[in-house]
Amino acid sequence: DFSKRIEVLQTDEVGNLAASFNTLASSLEEVDQKRREFLQNVSHELRTPLSYMKGYTEAILDGVAGDREAARRYVSIIHNETERMQRLVHDLLDLAQLEDDSYPMKDEPLPFAQLISEVAERFELSARQKEIQLVQNLDDEIIVNGDSDRLEQVVSNLLDNAIRYTPEGKPIRITLTKEGTFAVLMIQDSGPGISKKDLPKVVERFYRVDRARSRKEGGTGLGLAIVFQIIKKHNGELNIESEEGSSTTVIVKLPLFE
Ligand code: ADP
User: Fold this and answer.
1) What are 21-41's pLDDT values in tens digits?
2) With 90 as the cut, is the pLDDT of residue 4 above it?
3) How far is the CA of 208 from the centre of ligand 1 (A)?
4) How confident is the model at residue 8, as a pLDDT?
5) Which of 100, 106, 115, 123 is the 20 to 30 A CA-CA neighbour of 131?
6) For residue 218, which atom of ligand 1 is closest to its CA?
């Protein structure tokens, strides 16, 4: 219980000490509150697929499913929900590792433009299906320091979101430039944007503007939280700007290799 406070009666050292204790107690209380919220979220996220799985297996066992075709449909739902749980558990473990300070991260010079265009290539098919053009403008001289698998994950999560939210036939612009001692990657989509109110929250774990939509599209609500942690570990910066109704621009800054 971190809610207790000491009454500050003096302005001398003892009083200062009492005040410091109270500040410490407040921050512990906040951490405790965050931890509880996190556990609640995880439980909720796991409960939803589990209840689908339970319901549909029971329907099959009870013979409610009826014909073979219906039973097949039920099994396919169970399969989808299993995959969702698998993704969720994978992302949770990933995030736990990233938040662990002792977890090793590679630190190698990387040609960043090459890494970006390789990831973009993997998205060509899903982009083409929506007639989305990935317009790349990359400075190939740029070298950053980092972990290639992790930085690929950053680009991949961001492009995944950009393509998901961009309507058919609209472009996505990927730009890489130099700014002082930083490499600046910008991914600008032509999606619905994010409101000012939601903007600061989207990197929080499990925060989604539209929960039902994220669920339908298979999102775990952890993608941007993972991106944020990876960039933090690279001593970089993540900024998101948005024009509501027309576009979102995600800006990643990473220190240049020196
Ligand atoms: P997920 O995509 O799995 O829901 P993320 O952490 O990647 O989780 O994103 C969190 C939320 O931020 C999304 O649910 C969505 O509401 C919002 N969001 C992320 N990227 C974009 C984007 N490019 N355009 C509009 N909204 C976005």
Assistant:
1) 889 988 899 888 989 999 999
2) no
3) 6
4) 82
5) 115
6) 3
Tell me the three-class secondary structure of the chain, residue by residue. Answer: CCCCCCCCCCCCHHHHHHHHHHHHHHHHHHHHHHHHHHHHHHHHHHHHHHHHHHHHHHHHHCCCCCCHHHHHHHHHHHHHHHHHHHHHHHHHHHHHHHHCCCCCCCCEEEEHHHHHHHHHHHCHHHHHHCCCCEEEEECCCCEEEECHHHHHHHHHHHHHHHHHHCCCCCCEEEEEEEECCEEEEEEECCCCCCCCCCHHHCCCCCCCCCHHHHHHCCCCCCHHHHHHHHHHHCCCEEEEEEECCCEEEEEEEEEECC
Cα of 162 from ligand 1 centre, angstroms: 9
User: For the segment 241-252, what is each residue's pLDDT rounded down to a tens digit?
Assistant: 999 999 999 999
ipTM metric: 0.98
